[in-house]
Fold each of these.
Amino acid sequence: MARNDQNQVNRRRSENLKRKESDTNLIDIFEILNIVKKKFYVFIILGVLGAVLGGLYTHYMVTPMYASTGTIFLTPKNLETGEVNYGAMTVNSRLVNTVISLMKKDNIMSEVAERSGLPSAGSVRGTLNVANEEGTEIISITSTTTNPELSKSIVENTIAVFIEKMQENLNVKNIEIVDAPKLNFRPIGVNMQRNIRLGAIAGVGISCAYVFFLLLTDNRLKSKEEAEQYMGIPVLIEVPKWK
């Protein structure tokens, strides 16, 4: 009889253990809040640490780049009557892609490199972005380097050399400078505040993962009811928690 009772108790323990393991997959919102309350310092520490690391990474690891932009315009010729030659405007529209291609050729880039103090045409070409504003004869020339003065110098020299070459070699005299390049000391692609915020968010995210890990791996019996359910027998004595 005693053996049967013991077998029955063991069977209840096994069933209750399986039930408890299954219940660990069910997340109790109050238990989560309780863990968050107890581990709130972890959120603060990891959040601050993430923000600091984001700021340090941006300051020491991200190289600031500076851009300068100038624009030129292929102006239409006027007729003797003073009216705009719309035929010439059509030709200018078709010449835009050709102009963009010519601007980055070696004969122009080499002279720009010499004037800007760079070693080769390729080193100049690598900093340039030449683009056309869609539907217009306006061409923008942008140089991006680690030095704002160098970026401005490259754009200035590119425009100047290009206009000179076009006038000397092709007798093209209808290129006008719309916007001269300016010094820009504001770095592009570097956002300290954004990276600090992302670092803080990452720290809080790691804290959340830590809380869920604690919740899912905690198999302790936290109350008399849980102990009775797990053991299958009533609890006769409960020792109070000493503080």
Amino acid sequence: MNEILGVFMSEHKIIIDILNLAEDCKALDYLRILKQHNEASFNHSLRVALFSYHIADNFLKGDALDAGLSGLLHDIGKIYISPAILDKEGPLLNYESFLIHSHPVQGEVVLRELGVNDKIRIPALKHHRLSKKPYPSNTKILETDPVDFINVVSAADRGDVILFPRKYNGDNINIEGRVLDEFMGNKEFIRYILINKEKYTKEGLAITNFCKDYIQTKRLS
């Protein structure tokens, strides 16, 4: 029991460290807005932060906290998407998909206005480019982009879709196979999450429960 508790406390420290980085770049208030706007998207962002941290720590051997921050902020543009669309059960209508597909651009604008550096900001814009159906359509991944971070955040995002399926994805039959087939980045990053599926499912639930009140009431140093 003590060993399990120690693991969860370690994950709490990781997410607190990442939230402190968000405070440093003036993004914490936007995360508070996201939490109030759509808690499911906020919880998804927490888990993507945690998964991004662990993927980077395991494969990149450095920059794990920055990768976690990039994961935390990747969906910040969803503050501009109606909760009715974000929480819709079943497939989206065409106009709803159009609005969902706008969130990377919206998020990049927020982060650029905050002065967030490219390594953190660009994955927010391009985390859906590593797909068979990439968007936004007017963006491409360039050689000068932080490609490793785009790959990490994209894989963490897709891993979370498998572990915690979203309502607007429709049915979840063979979701693991479908996500892996559609993902055009480093599939080993997603497989790393899946190999540790039970562990990361528990940790994902633990950090979202921990952060329910933490981000609202705790002044981060």
Amino acid sequence: MYAINSDFSCIFAPLLGFVKINKSIPHNYYILTAVLIALMCFFNSCSEKPCELECLNGGKCIDGTCFCPNGFTGENCSTPVDSLIVTNTDTIYIVTDPCEDVICENGGICLNGTCDCPTGYMGDLCEMTYAEGLEGTYDVSVADCQPTSYTSALTAINSEMLSLSNFRDFNDSILLELVLIPENDSLLVNTQQINAGGLEYLVNGAGNIDIDDQSFTLELIYELFGNIEQCVETYTLQ
């Protein structure tokens, strides 16, 4: 019998049925052999199943399944895994691990080259607490109260406490303490007595932090001589 594992045999082997190679063997034997080879080639070519998804990153589709090079996985080889240099089907693939040079701090985990920080930490490498990362000078816009805009500074006292100066444009020496609650990106303002311009205010409230934008919003309640004033103040880092 003739080999059927090459395109050459599949194309030319059937023709041998019409050629008398060995006169001691009946001609019908060659014809039968050619027919069998042709049928086997036909069914072999038709049995290859296509892959539902295109194989990516050098993956090869074999009988309906993507076979991925080392460094990639998934139904269509779209998901990178930790590998560097691998070979597949005589081709060398160089796969760069995006987390190779990324060292996340404070328990952060590198995911596809970016640090996923635990609660309470921020920064490219999770190197800062929320309190440290929020420090700075802010532009403030105010709804429902006066003044409607001013600047204020936020300073970290510790990992859970912040000090806000010049809030409501009083002056830099008047401070409002904020309690940081990292678990839900929120702030708490416990009731405090603030002396400003010879007047005594009672101030309390709460707020929310947008860590990605390094901004926060406070809803504060000011009480003066029994009168209540509610203000929504948005702080945007300069």
